[in-house]
Amino acid sequence: MKRVYLILGAFLFTLTLFAQKQMSLEDAVLGRYSYLYPRQLHQLQWLGDDKLVYLENDTIWETDVKSAGKQMLISGSALKQSAAKSQLEFTRIPGFTTSNANELIFNANNTISVFNLKNKQFEYTLTVPEEGEVPDFCAAGRSVAYVKGQNLFIVKDGKETRVTNETNEGVVCGRYVHRREFGIEKGTFWSPSGKYLAFYRKDESMVKDYPLVDFMARQAEETPVRYPMAGMTSHQVTLGVYNVETGKTTYLKSAGPDDHYLTNISWGPNEEFIYMAELNRAQNHMQLNQYRVADGEKVKTILEESRSTYVEPQHPIQFSKTNPNEFYYWTRNDGWFHLYVYNTDGELIKQLTKGNWEVTEFYGTDSKENYAYIQATKESPIDRHIYRVNIKSGAIQKLDNNAGTHKADFSPSFAHFTDKWSANKNPGQTDLIATSGKVVRNISKAEDTLKDYQLGENKIITLKAADDSTDLYARMILPTNFNPNKQYPAIVYVYGGPHAQLVNNTWHNDANWWFYYMASQGYIMFTVDNRGSANRGQAFEEVVHRQLGVEETKDQMKGIDYLKSLPYVDQNRIGVHGWSFGGFMTLNLMLRQPETFKVGVAGGPVVDWSMYEVMYGERYMDTPEENPDGYKESNMLNHAGNLQGKLLMIHGAQDETVVMQHSMKFLRECIEQNKQVDFFAYPTHEHNVRGKDRLHLMQKISQYYFDYLKEDPSGQNISQAH
Question: Could you read off the pLDDT of 629-644 as tens digits, one per residue?
Answer without folding.
Answer: 999 999 999 999 999 9
